[in-house]
Amino acid sequence: MRFVPLLLTCTVSCELAAQANSPVGPATGVPAGAHAVEQRTRGSREGIRLVASFDGLGARFTGPHGRVALRNPSDNALAVGRRHVVQTVNAQLAIFSRTGKPLYGPLPTNTVFRGFGGPCEEILSGDAVVRYDQLADRWLLVLPTFRRAVPRRTPPGPRRAVLPRPAPTRDTGVRVAPPRPGPEPPGGTYAMCYAVSATDDPMGPWYRYEFTRPLFPDYPRPAVWPDGYYVPTSTGDDVIEKHVCVAERTRMLRGERARELCRLVPGVNFLNTADLDGRQRPPRGAPNLVLAAGGSQLAGVTDASELQLWRFHVDWADTARTTLVGPERVAVAPYRYLCGGQLTSCVPQPGVARRLDAQGDKLMARVVYRQFGARGSIVAAHSVNTANGAGGVRWYELHAAVDHPVTLAQQGTFAPDSSYRWMPSPAIDRFGNVGIGYSFGSASQFPGQRFAARTPRDPPGTLGLREVALVNGEAAQTTTLRWQDYTQTAVDPLDDCTIWYVGDYFKAGDSAYSTRIGAFRLPGCR
C-alpha cells in the first residue's frame, strides 16, 4: 500500500480551519487602478527553449534508496550546481545528475545531520530549503525544527561529516508511520539547522550548525549574501510579526564556529530577503534588502499599493552595531491578494469541487538580486486577483544603489486569459532577461506548471516571450486544498543564464503529487 502522511507546517490546525472557514469561489474584484498594469495578451515572440525536463520527487519516484515518503504540501525547493541538482520536498531530499539521473535518496532531509545529535538529527520537520552559493560553489541546506527541545548545555560546534550511504533496499511500497513524539519540554527552544557543503559535491562532506530559536521558525527563506546567509521565518499563523536572522557565512564556509543574529519585526505580513544570483557582488558593505507585500490578511486588509523594504546591515566585528532599518515604502500599482490570501479555496479544477490554495498574501518565492555594474536589480512576484475574475502573476523589478532609495523600474500582472496563474517564482539572468515559473490551471485544465519571460527589449511591464508549458496536469488534487505552498527557480552556475524551475502536477490515476524539474534558456544564453 502507499502511505502518504499529510504534515501541515503551521502553528494552528490550519487544514481543518481552512476547509471549514475558507471562502469558496473564484477570485473576485480588484482595487481601482490594478487593471492598468495587467498584460492581457500573451507574449508572441519565440525565445524560451526548454533544454531539460525530468520528474523529481513524487508519487512514482524511485531512487537509489527506494521510494519517497511524501508529505503535503510539497514545499518544493531546488538548487543547481556545476554537476548536480538537489531537490527537497518538505522532509525528503534527493540528488540528481544534471540530466536527471537519481544519484542519492530519497532520504529524510535531516540525514545530513546524522551523528550530530540534538534536535537537528532527532526532529524531522518540513520546510527544508536548499540553495547553491555561486560565490563559493557550495551548497546550503536549511532545516527548521517545529518542536521545542531542551537546549544543549554547551552549544555544539560545527562538525564535518559526509552524507551517510545507506545500502539501497528493495522497496516494498509499505510505509511505517514514525512514532508519536512525546510532550514538548517546558522552557524548550526551536532550532534552525544549517548544513554547508565543504566542496561543490553535495555527496561529499558537510559542515553542520545548530542555532536555537525562541520563536516558531516556519517558512524559512534562505538567501545568499556576501556577509551572511539571511533567513527570515514566520513566527506563527496568528501573529502579525516575523523573524529575520543572519548566519556568519564566511566562517561557516571554513567549518569554523559561527554565530546567528536575529531581529523581530512586528506588524509585518511576511518577510523575504534578497538572494544573490551570479558572481558579481553588490558593493562592499551593502546591506541585504528585505521585502514584504503590503496589507495583512489577519487584520482583514487584502488590498495594498506598496511594497515594504528594510535594510539589514550586519557587523560581525561589533554585533551591537548590526541594524535593521525600515520599512521604506515603495509605491506600486494597487493589488488584491489572490482569493483573499492564504488557506483559501481558490483555484478551480476540472470535474471536482475541491479548489486549491494560492498563498496569495505574500511574496512567498525567493526575492532575487543581481548586480549589473553599479546598479542592483531585484525581482519579486506574488499572486493577485485579475480583472477577469482569475489569478495573475504580479511581478516587479526594482533598482537599488547603496545609500539611495530603492526605486520601481517596472511592474506588470501577467493575466492573458481567464485561467489562473499563481505561486510564481522569478529569476533574472546575466543578460537582464526575467523568467518566471508558476502554477497554471482552471476549471477546464488540470493544474500544471508553466514559464514565461521577457528580454530588456520588451515594453516595460510585459512578458514578451511566448509562454511555454513545463508540464501539463493530468488529474485533480482532491485530498487537500494545500497546493505546493511554494516552488523555486535557480540560475545555472555554468552559464549564469539557464533558469531551472520545479513544480507540482498530478499524473492520471494518482492520489499524490509528482514534481517536474525543468531548465529554460532565454535569448542570448548559449
Short description:
The protein is mainly beta.
What do you see in this structure?
By secondary structure, this protein is mainly beta. Helices cover 3% and strands 41% of the residues. The chain has a nine-stranded mixed sheet with strand order 1-25-24-23-22-18-19-20-21, with no helix packed on it. β3 and β4 (66-67) form a beta hairpin. The radius of gyration is 21 Å and the shape is globular. The N and C termini lie far apart (46 Å). 53% of the residues are buried. The model is unreliable at 1-24 and 169-179 (pLDDT under 50).
Which secondary structure elements does this structure contain, and how are they paired or packed?
Layout (H helix, E strand, L loop, with lengths): L13 H8 L16 E2 L9 E7 L6 E2 L2 E2 L8 E5 L3 E6 L2 E6 L4 E7 L9 H5 L6 E5 L4 E7 L14 E4 L27 E8 L7 E9 L9 E3 L2 E7 L6 E7 L1 H5 L6 E7 L5 E5 L11 E6 L9 E11 L9 E14 L30 E6 L2 E11 L5 E10 L6 E8 L5 E9 L5 E8 L6 E7 L10 E7 L16 E4 L7 E7 L8 E8 L5
Parallel strand pairs: 1-25, 18-22
Antiparallel strand pairs: 2-32, 3-4, 5-6, 6-7, 7-8, 9-10, 10-12, 11-13, 12-13, 14-15, 15-16, 16-17, 18-19, 19-20, 20-21, 22-23, 23-24, 24-25, 26-27, 27-28, 28-29, 30-31, 31-32
